[in-house]
Amino acid sequence: MSFVEYGDTIKDGDTAIVFLGHESMFPVKVQHGSKTQTKYGVIRHSTDLIGKRYGSKVTCSKGGWVFILHPTPELWTMNLPHRTQILYSTDISLITMMLELKPGSIVCESGTGSGSLSHAIIRTVAPTGHLYTVEFHQQRAEKAKEEFQEHKVEHLVTVKNQDVCKNGFGVSDVADAVFLDIPSPWEAIGHAKSALKIEGGRICSFSPCIEQVQRTCLAMEEHGFTEINTLEILLRVYNVRTISLQIPDLGKAAKDNSSTGFDSSNQSNQGSLYGILQQGTAQFKSGVPLKEMVGHTGYLTFATKSLF
User: Fold this and answer.
1) Would you say 232 is a known binding-site residue?
2) What is the per-residue pLDDT across 286-296, written as a single tens digit (0 to 9) for each?
3) Are residues 67 and 119 both part of a single domain?
């Protein structure tokens, strides 16, 4: 099992996703002899998981069943153990596009945090790219390194435990892109510029407060970055529902009957006229926005390293 290479069968030591439903899933490390408890009963790793194909429907001890899914960065983002606040797929997708990441890209990141964005970057730059990620907190850095090894992507990432604002990323003139998710990103702009390739590159800074954005933009301008712009992504979810609406009476039925000599004064015809003029209803599918939605998460500031 690897987050960047799909495997058909579940093996001892793999990280798998136990899928109980769209709103209920969790990761599990597959180990010979281990058991995992769910609301549908026990899953025995040796007999129920190891050797089975990913995507298999597994029956638990109480008769209920779950699906065992191959891990992906998207599923990991939804199920990872939170050591910090994380970035979700809405922001990650835009970051990947705006930083122009592709297989072979060299990326510098700080801080590593819970590794949500890190896994997405690794999958994007594989198989020939590399991620240099810096984490100030020692325990978080060690845990991230351990997870990368478990997920078999350690050859694509280098984890460093240091202060990026003081010591930088530890590399110079190699990165195609830099991402910053730290409390004071303006203090690391100079180091980010040094890490980017001489011929230029892209930078992104994620900040929850507009005051951080203001100081970061000023620092980018001072260091010669161009195309500075800030975006905010708000995700609005729609529910698809069946809606019934009345068919509007545009007077066409009454007009047609008068032109054909329809006698509305005749009692025998009044019932027919009522049926013609009675408003009908039509049903159709429509998207209805939720009454509540996820609000502000953070601002994404992008810029380009100038060649001059």
Assistant:
1) no
2) 998 888 877 78
3) no
